[in-house]
Amino acid sequence: xxxxxxxxxxFYTTFSKITDFIILxxxxxxxxxxxxxxxxxxCGAYYVAMREVRDEEGYVWKGFWxxxxxxxxxxxxxxxxxxxxxxxxxLDIYWAYQIWKVNGTIGYxxxxxxxxGLAFVFFSISLYVFPLLSKFYNTVRETLRNALIxxxxxxxxxxxxALSLLxxxxxxxxxxxxxxxxxxxxxxxxxxxxxSKIIEQVIDEYExxxxxxxADGEQVLDASQMKAKEDLPDTLPSGHxxxxxxxxxxxxxxxxxxxxxxxxxxxxEQLNYEAESMPVTIQDAIxxxxxxxxxxxxxxxxxxxxxxxxxxT
Length: 313
Hints:
mainly alpha
């Protein structure tokens, strides 16, 4: 019973995780009030939430603020795009409803339902935009494209997530604002848990497709490939910036000649830095773990078999 209430016990860790998700939901609610900062805020929340569900260590505010700043520009652009499309579809739905109410023709009713269906599809896709942005370096267009692909490949999850969030928002605005305070942490936890598994599948498929191995799913160094975000320092020991920092969401072909030279040098520096500090590939990590797991007696036996003593010879 004493272990249950220890600092590393189940009660403490569960209570700590619940507190972290409540803090995350409050941060999202506050930073979504200006509307334009909603995207970066959601990125920060998912960045921390996906680490929490994987039981990775870290501080809520530090991780949230890191992702918020890192994704601010692209998050701002994506927020404006999503808000503009939502406003356009909302006005179309209102227009179709008013005409249908006046004329009563089934044609306008069908148009209204089609627009509602398209709005739901776009809303579902937008659920994946900011979790993907919080994890991968990419352009705005490619982020939207990846969100479309992932949402269409996980339709049951997409529908459940979209309906759950819509229900929370509906009861928040029509019944009691406390619904958002209670429902958002729960939604954030379960959506982050599912999103983390989906992103792991994306990384696994990406490795197979490009015949590369990401060290713990955290890095791709080829300029033509999707950049995965990790926690390496922004500058390498030599003083050169990381390749991802140089690209900053831009394709390699758009860099200047000086930036390309700096990028190529940074890639070489990062490869050397990571080769010295961590396994380059998952296969290397597995091999090293297996080597450590081999008992010393087995090694001695193998040496005896391969190196006969002088008496035997």
